[in-house]
Design goal:
globular; single chain
Length: about 90
């Protein structure tokens, strides 16, 4: 999968992760895309480590599921970090 495919996948997977776990996040579409792209790589690494199979092609269901799982993990971490920062500032 090329870089444009990874960006498109990241945008969609990041949006799906925000749909699954809605909330008020201080980040727009760029943060959502970045979480999706990095989450897709994280999901692929976790899939390789746990299942012995990483991401497949763009239209492979495994790629999408692992990307969503990785994005959800990153979204939780992002909310914890940003939540701590906002409590410290208040």
């Amino acid at each position: 999968m090329g870089i444009i495919g990874a960006i498109i996948l990241g945008l969609i997977v990041g949006a799906l992760a925000k749909l699954i776990m809605p909330g008020d996040d201080p980040g727009g579409i760029i943060v959502t895309t970045l979480i999706g792209i990095v989450g897709s790589f994280l999901g692929g690494a976790l899939g390789q480590w746990v299942l012995g199979q990483g991401n497949g092609g763009f239209f492979d269901l495994r790629t999408w599921v692992l990307g969503i799982i990785g994005s959800l993990i990153l979204l939780v971490i992002y909310r914890v970090i940003v939540g701590r920062r906002s409590k410290v500032r208040r």
